[in-house]
Amino acid sequence: MRLSRRQFVGLIGAAGLSGCARLGLDKVADKVKSVDMMPGSPGKVTFAVIGDIHVLDARSTGIVNKAMAMINANKDVRFTVMCGDLATDGNWPELKLAKSSLDRLERPYFSIPGNHDVCMKTKDIYANYRKLFDEADWRNEDEGWLFMGIDSTNEAKSDVSVRPDQIEWIQEQLKKTNGKRPIALFSHHPFNPNTKYRVQNADEVLGLFSGHNLKLVAAGHFHGNQEETRDGVLFTTTACCSSTRDNHDGTTSKGYRLFHIEKETITTEYVEVMA
Ligand SMILES: [Fe+2]
Ligand SMILES: [Fe+2]
After folding, report:
1. In a domain, 166, yes or no
2. pLDDT for the residue numbered 270
3. pTM of whole model > 0.90?
């Protein structure tokens, strides 16, 4: 969840100081300690979600850089969430290249790791990711919504359960969140009720949100566009945005997703990126 100086300065220029507060940037340094007392006043927000860029080498950043330029050109996009699998084997050169591409974004971005962002050859398998992208879990607030990113990885496994320490972290966040506040959750592994690769303890994790106002769970990993609504929660996965990988559903389109929030309503659209 790192904002480069260029992003921060650019944001101040674009939004003004009061805008910064509205964007929740005042909470970046102290984001986990913030306490929600009121549901706030939900307004309009557009944000982008991009995942599975699977950077391998300089050439593979081409499609990612195109996506970054498209997001920058859309002045409605307030921030971007990177939904994991930035790299191929979680090694330093791949993650560094991925970060160079993401740093092209002119507005804030927040990242969570995927199973290809852990380096199984190092003692601390998350060390490379953390050095470049900061915490793997984060929360941020904007226009009355709570946005939460969770690290769903379990080593480099494709089929996972959310780890007990992550479940505790979610519980802590919810304890200090007003039950009426709309929540968007981001995870690399999907929670969609009918998806392949569904998180094995998805129902247990979703149960933690009972008594809260969960509206969205957006994920990657599946490499394909899926939208499903259950009990008022929108679940999505998105095509990969990679030239080194195919989609798992056999489709060929690569791209990212936009989400539009208006008060407590959230809608989504897929944006294709030509390689
Ligand atoms: Fe992936
Ligand atoms: Fe993945």
Report:
1. yes
2. 98
3. no
d(CA 218, CA 186): 5
Q: How close is the Cα of 221 to the center of ligand 2, in Å?
A: 4
Cα–ligand 1 centroid distance for 223 (angstroms): 6
- Domain holding 190, by residue range, is 5-9+42-272
Identify whether the C-beta of residue 153 lies closer than 8 Å to the C-beta of residue 120.
no
Number of domains the chain is built from? 1
CA distances in angstroms from 183 to 75, 108, 143, 160, 175, listed in the order given:
23, 19, 11, 23, 13
- What ligand is nearest to the CA atom of residue 156? 2
Specify if 126 maps to a domain: yes
201 Cβ neighbours under 8 A, 6+ residues apart: 161, 162
Each residue of 60-115: pLDDT tens digit? Answer: 999 999 999 999 999 999 999 999 999 999 999 999 999 999 999 999 999 999 99
d(CA 37, ligand 2 centre) in Å: 35
- The pLDDT tens digits for 220-275 are 999 999 999 999 999 999 999 999 999 999 999 999 999 999 989 999 999 999 97
Q: Is residue 36 part of a domain?
A: no
**Ligand 2 center to 93 CA (angstroms):** 19
Q: How far is the CA of 160 from the centre of ligand 2 (A)?
A: 10
At 215, which CATH number?
3.60.21.10
